[in-house]
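Reminder to self: tokens first, then the designed residues, so the page reads top to bottom the way the pipeline ran.
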């Protein structure tokens, strides 16, 4: 009996996009926002096969658990999020739409967050052949909130930490609202005073700048999340205060 010898290398694209001739698959969008009721209970993920061969893929949903460090993926299964079709064989040059629909509680007590992974499946090789198969895994972040919900962010702590061995702001933000919110939708005012109480740093980080430095800053309902900003402070000794301010035009 011939044995199938196949080495498989896995590459993961978690909320990031890949370009270049080496990657013949694209997935968009990489972040979905759904609501628990109304027309926004459903959205589509588009998977494009730009390769020369049929592309077998499957959609796998994993629950995300909020923590102070962000979100952790776990093995918990859910019946609240329906993805159709669960798998597909995409012909060369074609696009497959995966329908993502919230079918859970129409009035959840807190926002819900998931990864829908679009996983490329290995291809069975003819007997006697071996090959290196590079399989791509694209993770689409799906957030579900109340249709009329509103996030309520506030700074609960600020301190001087480290980023690449340099003093940097560490800001902890809490969300006491009824749905998730993004820190990047607010401006963050930072003030540092040295050990003598003299102000040595005063800067307002806009929402766009925060997104470029750290990311969108998703904060789930009831979550306290800490962010280390890659901004060098003048000194590691002293105190830091941080406040959220509304940006002009909001």
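Designed residues (250 positions):
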């Amino acid at each position: 009996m011939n044995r199938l010898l196949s080495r498989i290398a896995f590459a993961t694209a978690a909320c990031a996009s890949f370009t270049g001739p080496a990657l013949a698959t694209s997935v968009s969008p990489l972040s979905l926002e759904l609501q628990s009721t109304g027309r926004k209970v459903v959205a589509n993920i588009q998977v494009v096969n730009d390769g020369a061969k049929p592309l077998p893929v499957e959609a796998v949903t994993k629950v995300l658990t909020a923590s102070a460090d962000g979100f952790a993926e776990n093995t918990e299964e859910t019946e609240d999020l329906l993805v159709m079709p669960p798998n597909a064989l995409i012909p060369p040059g074609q696009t497959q739409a995966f329908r993502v629909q919230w079918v859970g509680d129409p009035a959840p007590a807190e926002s819900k967050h998931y990864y829908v992974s679009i996983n490329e499946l290995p291809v069975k090789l003819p007997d006697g052949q071996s090959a290196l198969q590079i399989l791509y895994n694209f993770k689409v972040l799906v957030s579900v909130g109340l249709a009329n919900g509103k996030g309520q962010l506030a700074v609960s702590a600020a301190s001087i930490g480290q980023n690449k061995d340099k003093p940097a702001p560490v800001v902890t933000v809490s969300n006491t609202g009824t749905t998730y919110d993004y820190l990047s939708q607010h401006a963050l005012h930072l003030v540092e005073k040295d050990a003598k109480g003299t102000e040595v740093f005063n800067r307002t980080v806009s929402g766009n700048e925060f997104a470029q430095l750290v990311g969108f800053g998703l904060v789930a309902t009831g979550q306290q999340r800490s962010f280390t900003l890659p901004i060098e402070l003048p000194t590691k000794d002293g105190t830091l205060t941080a406040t959220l301010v509304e940006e002009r035009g909001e």
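Residues 1-22 have pLDDT under 50 and may be disordered.
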